[in-house]
Give the backbone structure.
Amino acid sequence: MKIDGKSYKTIWFENNLVKIIDQTKLPHQFIIKDLKIVKDAINAIKTMEVRGAPLIGATAAYGLVLSIIEKNDLSFLKKSSEELIASRPTAINLKWAVDRMMKKLSGVNNKDILKIALGEAKAITEEDEKFCKNIGLNGLKIIEDVANKKKDTVNILTHCNAGWLATIDWGTATSPIYHAHQKGIKLHVWVDETRPRNQGANLTSYELNEEGISNTIITDNAGGILMQRGEVDMCIVGTDRTLSNGDVCNKIGTYLKALSAKDNNVPFYVALPSSTIDWDIKDHKKIPIEERNSEELSHVEGVDENKEIKKVRIYPQKSKSLNLAFDVTPAKLITGLITEKGVCEASEKGLRGLFK
Ligand code: MRU
């Protein structure tokens, strides 16, 4: 998708370096950053210079490429893979991508390993881009149905950033929106601010602006009243881990949106590539929920009148805070899962029907 009219992907490999867009500086500064060694990739994931389930998976895959360039040695590669997996616990794509890379590299000799690693990391990014495009085409049909019935602007609510910045391109939740916009359907997006890191305001609104899509940032608590007023036609969100029973673990606050949507008969869709499905964990209580630094709550960052990025404390110094980064939306609250293979019910039967 575009920034300042120029097309970008979120990650690419050039001259033995991994290039990323530093998302901690958006929307105020657009900075392309070089990752030179595997530690840079681990750090980029931990500090959320890259974030979003599919993108952290792709970054981990390229992190292993950097590990091989740094030191072509099996025990170093294994250590790198473990550190990459541990860098953010909730999104399953991270482990999925590292496991896929390590399987591909197992038994490969030192002479060929870099070429094969690079090929597989590239395959992961290309596949994600293709899957996200297909998610868009499958979700487009749902938006078209709403538009045909309503014969007026379709209002879609989304949470966090499941946009192209969270993937390689297109996004998951935003892909149907981008496809509908390209087809000329009149749309407006309610963008949840998404405290504490404001991925909705800083990233989703930013990318929708760059594509010329009408959007309004709302506080995380405003979705309920907008739904009661009939101002939301549907919700589409992303996911960091989808259990085989259809339960969805996504950015904190998603669950409350789904409850509100259920109470107001607003369809609630989750968009995902199959790399986000966890076929092993059966009970959502077993999902490792990331607890991040409480400073993300107690401090806010923004630009001052000189356009300099500043961070200020907003909480009483003595107050404690708890920063849980994700919650789980039970399948019973989800209208459907929009995947690269089609739309299905949020259930084991639905998912198995698409993914044998
Ligand atoms: O903490 P983040 O910003 O990585 O959380 C991102 C989300 O919760 C997204 O909704 C999810 O990763 C889906 S990405 C297409």
Summary: The mean pLDDT is 97.
